[in-house]
């Protein structure tokens, strides 16, 4: 069985980060191992949440793995809360990467034109350096603009602008770029992937849902990583991840009293499993 190590915080309640990565990756028939960076009582959309930082535990955990000669087929990093945690990811990639091990970095820092609370342009620059160690990076438009140090363009951009953007992101040092949240109208939302080795750009647009939810970016990145480890091409992995997020949002909206704090991805898991057939490979 293939094995992924995913590095993110974990919320005891609230569907994001490790709380969704672990069940989604497991459902895809891939062993999900975790390196939690912090424990929260709920995710940050709730008020008054508790937070316990686990940065000081990371080196001891990874040292034990080295002692046990544990290996991974993919390293997948999500939300990292400090410069120190970014620095620790270099050691993780050095010690457990290489060979055929995939390295996927989701630079979770912001959305809708702004960085999350506590993050700065200097942090975005540090994240951009970490992306140079990745095979695949998965930013949204906000994260892309901050990592490149350019103004955020919310709408009105052209296809040529987006193509130039993904090429500039690849110049950070990564091989493959998956850019989320691209839209040219009110009806469709798109994913753009770029492979710098083949110089191939793929576009995939799906239905734009009437409401957004916390954690969908984490779900997308988790499915993408699982699909890559399962052997899907980057384009097919993007399509599967986007389709699963749409199915999860539809499942959520079908409930009259749906939770505001996360999507009902659990109800959409049968869809995900059904799509993991030989026809996708």
UniProtKB/TrEMBL annotation:
Keywords: ATP-binding, Kinase, Nucleotide-binding, Transferase. Its EC number is 2.7.1.35. Residues 24-256 form the Pyridoxamine kinase/Phosphomethylpyrimidine kinase domain. It comes from the Bacteria. InterPro entries: PM/HMP-P_kinase-1, PyrdxlKinase, Ribokinase-like. It is an enzyme of class 2 (transferase). It holds the Pfam family Phos_pyr_kin. GO terms for cellular component: cytosol. One of its GO terms (biological process) is pyridoxal 5'-phosphate salvage. This is pyridoxal kinase. It comes from Treponema bryantii. The lineage of its organism: Bacteria, Pseudomonadati, Spirochaetota, Spirochaetia, Spirochaetales.
